[in-house]
Amino acid sequence: FQPGVGLGLNTPTSGASGLNTASFNLSGFLSHVFPRSIVEAMGNNEVLQIVVFSLFFGAGLAFVKGQGKSSILSVLEELTQVMFRITEYVMWVAPLAVFAAIAATISLYGLGMLVSFGKLIAQFYLGLALL
């Protein structure tokens, strides 16, 4: 099987550029684990820093007593509801985005691309069936 043969797609001539290939050291790792700012960590999609902040925030919130804890929790619950609503909207729009992506692919490369994708998917399921 050779999916994609005959499509004539351009492939990159060079490898990935801009990758940080610095060597690992413990002090660099530990300084990277703790975020300078949670907003910066979220903006840069630093998942490990966000998880560490969340763990410390949750541990700190567990020791808060009285009205402050319930008000913080109610704000977080409302933010959760907002995020679920946004996720629901995205899930409604996602099929349209997939249709638009497929239409753009067909307009650029023709129907041969769909045939190639169909062969790839068929080979994928055949491979799963053989497992």
What does this structure look like?
This protein is mainly alpha-helical. It has a domain at 24-63. Helix content is 70%, strand content 0%. It is built from 5 helices and no strands. The protein has helices spanning 26-33, 38-43, 47-62, 67-109, 112-130.
Q: What labels would you give this structure?
A:
extended, 131 residues, mainly alpha
Count of helices? 5
Can you tell me the residue ranges where pLDDT is under 50 for at least 5 consecutive residues? none
Order of helices and strands: HHHHH
The largest sheet, given as strand count, sense and whether it forms a barrel, is:
none
The pLDDT mean sits at 87
Question: Could you say which structural class the secondary elements and strand pairing correspond to?
Answer: mainly alpha
**N-end to C-end Cα span:** 17 Å
The protein's oligomeric status is single chain
Helix % is over 70%
The whole-angstrom Rg is: 24 Å
Tell me the fraction of residues in β-strands, as a range. Answer: under 5%
Q: Any idea what the shape is?
A: extended
Number of DSSP strands?
0
